[in-house]
Amino acid sequence: MTNGSAGDELARFRSSIDNIDAAIIHMLAERFKITERIGEFKAREGLAPADPQRESEQIARLRTLAAEAGLNPTFTEKFLRFVMDEVIRHHSAAQDSSNDNS
Amino acid sequence: MTNGSAGDELARFRSSIDNIDAAIIHMLAERFKITERIGEFKAREGLAPADPQRESEQIARLRTLAAEAGLNPTFTEKFLRFVMDEVIRHHSAAQDSSNDNS
């Protein structure tokens, strides 16, 4: 535990982290809403679930944005793959549940 | 490839994903700037780098926020740990480089 001004300064830093994390969580919630709609849309239109060219473009774009923002591009690519893996997990779960209903 | 209105709709969804990803990348860049300052601050004040109680509080808070926003709490916890691991990696790298200079 820390007391006085050192504790205050740490609390201020942590308050900023908490605000940023809340913003990211809400952005991610919105992102998954959209990927869910994309999944439904692709199924309806008979499009393949995965699109490797689109994924390569996303990775390249985010690596560039990250570098400009001072964020490690390799971490950024790992982050995007982490999120994309969850999207694929959602789509597979949705497909399983749809198969269960057929 | 898709043509016409189906392609247009997919492009609209993807444009939203791209905007959200850019927002998240910039939030993460800012987050790492702050954790870097926290690391320097803790080193200066002689505070331990890790704080398990703070981490538990962060996880509990974000799981609640995620549930309210319709995001999977388990994914959210995995996401926070993914980011925290990178913070630890940064701090270790900074410490190694500081040791090299001593």
Report on the architecture of this protein.
2 copies of one chain form a homodimer. By secondary structure, chain A is mainly alpha-helical. The first copy, chain A, is 87% helix and 0% strand. Chain A is built from 3 helices and no strands. In chain A, helix 2 runs antiparallel to helix 3. The longest helix of chain A has 42 residues, at 4-45. The mean pLDDT of chain A is 89. Chains A and B meet through helix 1, helix 2 and helix 3 of A and helix 1, helix 2 and helix 3 of B.
Could you give a short description of this structure?
Chain A has 102 residues and is mostly helical. Chain A contains three helices and no strands. The model of chain A has no long low-confidence stretch (mean pLDDT 89).
Spell out the blueprint of helices and strands.
Two copies of one chain form a homodimer.
Chain A: H1 4-45, H2 52-69, H3 73-101
Helix pairs in contact in A: 2-3
Strand segment count of chain A: 0
Largest sheet of chain A: none
Low-confidence stretches of chain A: none
Oligomeric state, counting identical vs distinct chains: homodimer
Structural class of the secondary elements of chain A?
Answer: mainly alpha
Averaged pLDDT of chain A: 89
Strand content of chain A: under 5%
What distance separates the N and C termini of chain A?
58 Å
Provide the helix percentage of chain A.
over 70%
In DSSP terms, counting alpha (H) and pi (I) runs of 4 or more, how many helices of chain A?
A: 3
- Could you say which overall geometry of chain A the principal axes of the C-alpha atoms support? elongated
Give the chain pair forming the largest contact, with residue counts: A-B, 47 and 48 residues
Radius of gyration of chain A: 19 Å
Q: SSE string of chain A, helix = H, strand = E?
A: HHH
